[in-house]
Amino acid sequence: MQRVIVLGSTGSIGTQALDVIRANPERFEVVGLAAGSNREMLDGQAIDFRVEHTALGADAAEQLVRDVDADVVLNGITGSVGLGPTLAALRAGRTLALANKESLIVGGDLVKSLAAPGQIVPVDSEHSAIAQALLAGTQHEVRRLVLTASGGPFRGFTREQLARVTPAQALAHPTWNMGLVVTTNSATLMNKGLEIIEAHLLFDVEYDRIDAVVHPQSVVHSMVEFIDGSTIAQASPPDMRLPISLGLDWPNRVAAVGTPIDWTVPHSWTFEPLDTNAFPAVELAKTVGRKGGTYPAVFNAANEQAVAAFHDGRIGFLDIVDTVLRVVESHEPDGALTLDSLADAERWARAAADRLIAAR
């Protein structure tokens, strides 16, 4: 029986995790729940799962992780506010099922230095797919990681077309049902950039050996190419319950958590290169990842500000990544990587992004 704390329980990842747990009461028990602001829904979940310990807000979630005994902490919080709970889970010796990619990307070496081998289990579908494929070989046999991207709602658009898209169009993702920030990041391909940084940190593979490829069907979730020329791909219909279930009890699989592919009918899967001119976020992310230090924190914070401004109608779609680029280019790191330096860098990046946005 895995005792589980679910952080971000009222969001997309959290509610799907609770679906998995509800369907498998003999394997999982919820011992703690935390949400960002939806107290009413959180209280309903606590009643449904008979959970005594709940928290509202990131600071309270961090305290919950420290105080409540658990085997697994699923961090489904959105944004860099998830860093504190991530660090708390690692310090407490819990297995961290990580859906909050921002905490690893922003925390970087601070997070990695706390994590024991195997303590962080990725929940993003791409990184879960890579973790599964890596079981087919050893670390020194890996030649390349290939992350797949749906291409979002604007696949095939030129920069001229992208200049005219609306917030409503950016939220119309063709495959996944996600929150506002993640869905917008998928439209700009910023999400894929963040995932490349995450893949580097999770699997210790250099950036020049991590690629992204557009796969509109979202059935192949990512691939690992090995030195003998073979490629191992993980494929399943798009359903986050599968990687969530693996995160809750890695590497053990949960029966009937997803619907398998029907191999008795025809399928057509396509793969195409990224248009880095129309979608420069991925190459920018690689540059930021190579710089390391506080650069990823600046990159992420500036993006969060720009996404909010886009949805408020203050900037256009192309201005999101352009704003992030200008903030990153003006960043001057100061000192060693610490929680204080990360917090200072984030505050500076948000203020710098806000100034650029106000000037447009």
UniProtKB/TrEMBL annotation:
Pfam families: DXP_redisom_C (PF08436), DXP_reductoisom (PF02670), DXPR_C (PF13288). Its EC number is 1.1.1.267. Its cofactor is Mg(2+); Mn(2+). Pathway: Isoprenoid biosynthesis; isopentenyl diphosphate biosynthesis via DXP pathway; isopentenyl diphosphate from 1-deoxy-D-xylulose 5-phosphate: step 1/6. Residues 120-203 form the 1-deoxy-D-xylulose 5-phosphate reductoisomerase C-terminal domain. The keyword Manganese applies. The keyword Magnesium applies. NADPH binds at T10, G11, S12, I13, G36, N38, N100, E102, G179. GO terms for molecular function: 1-deoxy-D-xylulose-5-phosphate reductoisomerase activity; isomerase activity; manganese ion binding; NADPH binding. Residues 4-53, 55-108 form the 1-deoxy-D-xylulose 5-phosphate reductoisomerase N-terminal domain. It is an enzyme of class 1 (oxidoreductase). Catalyzes the NADPH-dependent rearrangement and reduction of 1-deoxy-D-xylulose-5-phosphate (DXP) to 2-C-methyl-D-erythritol 4-phosphate (MEP). HAMAP family: DXP_reductoisom. Belongs to the DXR family. NCBIfam families: Dxr. This is 1-deoxy-D-xylulose 5-phosphate reductoisomerase. It comes from Cryobacterium gelidum. The lineage of its organism: Bacteria, Bacillati, Actinomycetota, Actinomycetes, Micrococcales.
